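User: structure tokens for this one?
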Amino acid sequence: MRVTAANLVHAIGKLPRDIHYQYADTSTTTKLIIERVDYPEGPIIVKRYGTKLNPNAASAKSVSLSSSMIWRLANAMVPGKPINLERVFGSSYNSRSALEALLLHTPEFYTTKLDRLEQRGSTQKVKAGHKHLLFLPDEPHENGVMGRKVLDMQVSEVSFDVIYEGVTLEAAQAISGVDIEQARRHAQIQIALVLIGQQLGFRTWIAANDRSIEYAGRRIAEMDSVIGSLDAEKVLTAYPEATSAARLIDCIWFRNGRLMPAVMEVEHSTGVTSGLTRMKGFFDLGPALRDIRWTIVAPDELRKKVFDQANLAQFKSMDVRFFPYSAVDELYSLCQRRKPTGITDDFLDCFMERCVAA
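Assistant:
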């Protein structure tokens, strides 16, 4: 559903007038009183007090929540997707927290905090995050009471438009050779690749040893568009040895039963050579399709290492592509926000870099 300024104004207009509303950050002493609501799209006039200059309701200062501000927030709203008001408004609109506070007291809005994925080199840490505004029209709470919700989601520091739901750590820990935070990031990238593929019309194979990972309470093998067996893929039916070699490839995209737009290994600092070796085993035994992108997906700072390894004599024939994490996040965000359709496989080349010079 598309949210409009009129929707937000109408919801705030239904709030009781005898309540003094608090902000999402309960440590602040500032309170709000609704003075006037102008339909259909604002402005909304509130009185604000609890500051040094306006310590009590008698000295409350009138503030206007403009129609343009309300529209800007409405245009950013997507059901179920947390949004950060600092990202929506930047340095504009000093009264944005007042608008947020009023909306949080309407039935369809909640405040939530998302952990932040901090990327430093190939190491990832989970940090306490920032508050977000969450629109849940199918889960209303009591009118006039602030809605709060705890979510198992994380926001990527690479692109704050990218939000990952919770990965079950016990399952992620089973990925050998990496610590728990690297395993979490590995799983998140695989999830992103599945959802990108789904939006672009691909069916996805996920490595046999990663299929028990749980994401948002659901095993990755049970996600829509994830295939259950490589044996059923027409493009591989004549290559049983290749099918066996492909079982442990992190991610393979299939299209129309005849094409493989990309074969991808998600790697960290120690795994580039092993990933290339797994792909090479599949490359040597499988169908010689021209448009397969043999791809290493890795942190951005591993670019030189990926390029160096991809240009070794034993791997050069694969014409390897580099798909950095930042580009995965960017494409994932685009697919989630814009839902692109009708594009060709060549679109992938905008996000992948060829490692071997033509």
